[in-house]
Design goal:
2 domains, Acyl_CoA_acyltransferase, globular, GNAT_dom, alpha+beta, 30% helix, Acetyltransferase (GNAT) family protein
Length: 206
């Protein structure tokens, strides 16, 4: 199991217990009950529903995990550049996310990690969208991605997604992993790119 606890209420969505199996679900229930900030329990859909209901849990919105085995990926015929400067990348990423406060601070800190690879989609010489990638052995994890409001709906994120898959394949990765909010444009982009979308049930205890 993996337990994550965020102390700031604005980052409560990060507080989860995941990696739960039928063998560990009782321990997961006890762990959630012992935590004062009541992290959400994320389990495979259908796992231990009756047990969770008896323990006082209620179903919350699903979370998505997207998986794609990697083979040879076509190159993207658009102007996408990889940048090393945090500020150039973060200016576009944060303008696209349109968030502030602790959530913005968390996103900035996460995308300043040295292992983060940062990409910008450029139109007419100006960056319009940003997306990140980290590589862990032979697994590529797609990081944050956003498009400037004035440039949404024109395929920039689909292009950045395909480009990152190509970069990951060139780096020897055999699997790409991403998360997205159910029903979001990001989830639709991942499905169109051939990702297998897994719904994970989320349970919370009052």
């Amino acid at each position: 199991m993996l337990a994550v606890a965020a102390t700031d209420p604005a980052l409560g969505f990060l507080s989860t217990v995941s990696g739960v199996t039928i063998e560990t679900i009782h321990a997961a229930i006890d762990l959630v009950a012992a935590e004062g900030n009541r992290p959400a329990l994320v389990v495979p859909t259908g796992l231990g529903e009756a047990l969770l209901l008896r323990a006082g849990f209620v179903r919350a919105a699903d979370r998505l995990l997207a998986l794609k085995p990697l083979t040879t990926q076509p190159r993207v015929a658009v102007d996408i550049i990889e940048v090393t400067a945090d500020d150039a990348f973060l200016d576009v990423l944060m303008a696209g996310y349109e968030v502030d406060g602790p959530v913005a601070a968390f996103i900035r800190a996460e995308h300043r990690l040295p292992m983060m690879r940062r990409f910008l989609a450029v139109a007419r010489g100006k960056p319009i969208a940003a997306a990140a990638l980290t590589i862990h052995g032979d697994v590529a994890v797609l990081g944050g991605a956003s498009t400037l409001p004035a440039h949404r709906g024109h395929g920039a994120q689909s292009q950045l997604l395909r480009h990152r898959l190509h970069v990951a394949t060139d780096a020897g990765c055999t699997l790409a992993v991403a998360t997205a909010r159910p029903g979001s444009v990001s989830a639709a982009n991942l499905a169109r790119a051939g990702f297998h979308i897994q719904h994970r049930a989320t349970w919370k205890r009052n």
